[in-house]
Amino acid sequence: MGETTTILFEVFIDTIGYWWVIIPTIFLGLIVGGIPGFSAANTIIILMPLTLAMDLQTGLVFMVTLYCAARMGAGIPAILVNIPGTAGAAATPLDGYPMAKAGKGQQALAISFVSSSIGGLLTTLIALATMPLLARVGFYMHSVEMIVVMLFGISLIASIASQDMLKGLIAGFLGLMIGSIGTDVVYATPRGTFGFLELYDGVPLIPALVGLFAVSEAFIIIEKRVIVSHEGDVKTGSWHDTFEGVRIALRHWWHIVWTSVIGLIIGVIPGAGASIASFVAYQQSRSLSKTPELYGTGHPQGLIAPESANNGVTSGTLVPLLVLGIPGGATAAIMLVVMQYHGVSFGPSLFETQPEIGYGMFMAMAVAYLLMFLTILPLSRYMSHVTTIPTIYLAPMIISFTLVGGFVPREYMFDMYLALGFGLLGYIARRTGYHVAAILIGVILGPLLERYFLLALKKSDGDIMTLFSSKLGNVLWVALFFSLVLPAVFDWRRKRRELMGQQRKLVG
Amino acid sequence: MKRTLNRRTFLGTSAVATGIALAAPQIARAAGYPDRNIGVIIPTREGGGADRNFRAFTSIWKNKLNADFEPGFFPGASGRVGYEVYMGKKAPDAYSLIFGNMGPEVLNWAMQAPSFDVNDYFYFGRVDTDPGCLFVGVESPLKTLDDVIAEGKKRRLNVGTSRMAHPASIGLLALGEETGADFNLIPLSGGKNTVAGAVTGEVDFSVLTSGSVIAAGEAVKTLLVFGENRVGERLHNAPGMNDVYGTDLPEMLSSRAFAIHKKAADDFPERFETLTSTFKATFDDPALLEAYIASKGTPEYLNYGGVEECGAFMTAMLELGAKYKPLLSGA
To answer: Which chain A residues have any C-beta within 8 angstroms of a chain B C-beta?
Structure first.
């Protein structure tokens, strides 16, 4: 134990010495994370020759920092202009953007930065302490269990639908239908592709994301002069607003802890990712809240949950990579390539033979989150001014940036047209009172649910009872049941108490 | 002096002009090819194995051809998008090639025909051959091939594969036919998930291209190779299927190769000859091995093949695909 602590301390000091890599990479990561379509994964691919030319430790510090910073950066446009930079930030605008519209963009950014940094830092330390245990999570979370996890996320549609049940469910089902476009996961039979080869792998996420959120938002804001509802509210932005955001976030420290742990656990599961984690965390946060009706209106807890969770995922994806050699996500898969290039062999022995690599990656993550907190937080004051830029400039910039973002992941012109199509769909949905988030949840989580469902059925030769064949799966089913039913029961009891209170007053 | 154009002069001049017009491109072709970069469609994502393999090989080939290669990545639909773009949008002028994987991508055609005639392109330069293999997670209760077969005779074993129409899947089905073991192929969408499936126990074991299995390191153990084990210990000295069971199954390979429009080879034979001769010369250059090792490829898998070898492999894949189509496509 003492020896491990000494090693960890040495590695920590060693990692601090890489500040000259970490600080510039933080800003690079914020930029690529903030531009839709770009991500840590494709930036590392683009910079691969540079990364391979660095010595291994420098390369790893660079990649890990980029990964964390990009994750945090994706939340900035999600909050300020309703454009999630990546699918992992898709749940962030649900409450972040209403705050920005209400002139509280600076507070929202501060909340996001604090939740992300603390969530990321905390889960990194938890991952370090419990790595052998966490690496086992993937051994228990198979297709049946993942079906239930997906349902946790998808049930958010019902929560959103609660404001207008029929429209919410129509939007959710539309999203699920769009998500089912593409070849089926078992026999690769094309469905609903309308003959477009570009749709064979399903509807690409980034064009759908930028179309539904950003392009439609651009169409909406062009009808106003600026984004904020009360013009001028943020023009006098001061440090006070930033500290208020920090205070709000710290007041909900326990919320940051448990939602980031959700992210950590989901991140550990190979194939799962930040988009699942943020929706599941948001759904759980809302279900367990005493004020679920405030979610979607600019409620701080609705912002803390997805931001803590998607940063919790970053440390989670490193665990199976280092312990088992199985990357937990796309960015971790590229790190694997770079590490293999340098001859790193994975497994528990890595922490004995090359502790500067094994522990070093987590330390790099911890140091990156620490430095991010210190370097980014002061910027929230200036970033929030985006919401005061006149929309005649902002809307064209949003449309052009996001269309390029839609193009980048696959470099198909088709994807730009698709983003425009989704933009039109999003605009019509907003104008007619349908919730675009409900559509997007279907588009993102629908294909994953279908994948796990078909795999479970294929493994059991079509026996539907396989869904209840695992102990852990059954525990999760029960948890899902209670997380759906209890809020409704609490809501009913609260309304009944209010009604009885009113009756007593009338009688009195 | 006044000149008049009579019938004789006209016909004579026309004949000379026509002759020059017809001969000029041939002269230019012979002298100038290639006078610009060669575009290469890669039907997978940038940064993957095909990309690294392509860059290593063309870093040597470009010196022989005196032209650079420009990759264009068109991933999607198991390679189908890239081939459709190549056949549908690229001019058949020998300035455009495709760098594909003859194993899984040709099997695709057997499952579902593309919009073009598969005989309208052909592979002319094989770069490597990477056999499929059967492997278990290190914690699997199935420790040996005998364990796998014995268990497969007792119950239906779930076997992970990157996709149904994959040479390794065919290898497994052939193993089942040979031994009577019952296997249920589970497509896990990609090599990473296929390794994870075996390691975490989502499936009983998996089959995959051996290069990806080598990369998985200590987490897995290989029990059988659907071809020849050219890397020995790195695949845990697993035997080849034909050696164990006396079968005559062709090697179930992932095999990357350059292909060209048939029309380009027919219309520009000199250009095609330049491509094939420089391709062969690349293999004769020791620098290729160095480039391949530097890109972290498996040097034992570098394996030259020309038009004939590629054609035979493509035919074998199409035949095997047709044979196993009901099992692989659910049709």
So the answer is: 45, 48, 138-139, 142-143, 183, 185-189, 197-198, 200-201, 270-271, 320, 324-327, 333-334, 336-337, 340-341, 345-347, 349, 410-411, 451, 455, 458-459, 461
Residue B329, exposed/middle/buried by CB under 10 A (0-12, 13-18, 19+)? middle
* Domain boundary assignment for chain A: 2-469
* Whether the model pTM is above 0.90: no
Give B165→chain A minimum CA distance, Å: 8
- Residue A166's pLDDT is 83
* Residue B1's pLDDT band (cuts 50, 70, 90): very low
Of A185, A326, A349, the CB nearest to B187: A185
Tell me which residue in B80, B112, B219 faces A326 most closely, judged by beta carbons: B219
* pLDDT range class, residue A441, cuts 50, 70, 90: confident
CA A351 → CA A124, A314, A347, B138, distances in Å?
A: 16, 19, 8, 19
**What angle do the packed helices A93-101 and A300-324 form, to 10 degrees?**
140
- DSSP secondary structure letter of residue B77: G
User: How far apart are the C-alpha atoms of B328 and B331, rounded to whole Å?
Assistant: 8
Tell me the mean pLDDT in the region B196-220.
90
CATH of B131-245, one of 3.40.50.2300, 1.10.287.40, 3.40.190.10, 3.10.20.600: 3.40.190.10
Domains B38-129+255-329 and B131-245 share a fold: yes
Tell me which chain B residue has its CA closest to the CA of residue A336.
B215
Counting residues of chain A whose pLDDT is more than 90, the rounded percentage is: 25
Task: Give pLDDT, residue A418.
Answer: 93
pLDDT tens digit sequence for B269-302: 999 999 999 999 999 999 999 888 887 778 889 9
Chain A residues near residue B111 by CB distance under 8 angstroms: 188
Mean pLDDT (chain A, rounded): 84
Distance to chain A for B311, nearest Cα, Å? 26
Query: Which of B112, B193, B218 shows the shortest C-beta gap to A346?
Result: B218
Please give the structure tokens belonging to residue B164.
């149904």
Q: What is the pLDDT of residues B82-115, one digit of tens each?
A: 998 899 989 999 999 999 999 889 988 888 888 8
Out of A187, A345, A451, whose CB is closest to B218? A345
DSSP A453: H
Q: Are A232 and A59 in contact (CB under 8 A)?
A: no
CB pairs under 8 A between A and B: 103
What average pLDDT score do residues B70-88 get? 87
Name the class of domain B38-129+255-329: alpha beta
Short-list A215, A227, A117, CA closest to A430:
A215
- Bridge partners of residue A191, in order along the sequence: A182
- Do the Cβ atoms of A346 and B219 come within 8 Å? yes
> pLDDT band for position A210 (50/70/90)?
confident
A49 to chain B: nearest residue by CA? B47
